[in-house]
Amino acid sequence: MDIIHVEGTNKGDVFLYALSTCIWCKRTKRLLNELGVEYRYVDVDLCEGEEKASVKADLKKWNSDVTFPTIVIDDEKVLINYQEEQVRRLLGND
């Protein structure tokens, strides 16, 4: 699985499940970059075969509807769909 690491300020373990073609996923990545947050992400649609099935199974643990984007923070908090205010509150520099 191609997990991409984006450098930034450590705000905990931030993992984004995304689609490469999803406008809301692109906006989420842009927001995380704007906030300077260190995070990892995978574009699920670019995975293939068993790898894709494995990633979707992992995602389903956090989001049973398997919708995008989904952000998992420290294996505790989950943000489903684009939630700018929540991301700013949890990961911003406030």
How is the secondary structure organized here?
Blueprint: E1 4-6, E2 14-18, H1 23-35, E3 39-43, H2 49-62, E4 70-73, E5 77-80, H3 84-91
Parallel strand pairs: 2-3
Antiparallel strand pairs: 1-3, 2-4, 4-5
Name its key features.
five-stranded mixed beta sheet, 37% helix, 22% strand, 5 strands, 3 helices, 94 residues, globular, alpha+beta, Glutaredoxin, single chain
Kindly describe this structure.
The protein is built from three helices and five strands; from the N terminus they run ββαβαββα. It has a five-stranded mixed sheet with strand order 1-3-2-4-5, covered by helices on one side. The chain has one domain (4-91): Glutaredoxin (3-Layer(aba) Sandwich). Helix 1 runs parallel beside helix 3 (84-91). It has 94 residues and is α+β, with helices and mostly antiparallel strands. The N and C termini lie far apart (34 Å).
Brief account:
With 94 residues, this protein is of the alpha+beta class. It is 37% helix and 22% strand.
Helical run tally:
3
Strand content: 15-25%
Give the termini distance in whole angstroms. 34 Å
**CATH topology call:** Glutaredoxin
Alpha-beta classification: alpha+beta
Order of helices and strands: EEHEHEEH
Count of structural domains: 1
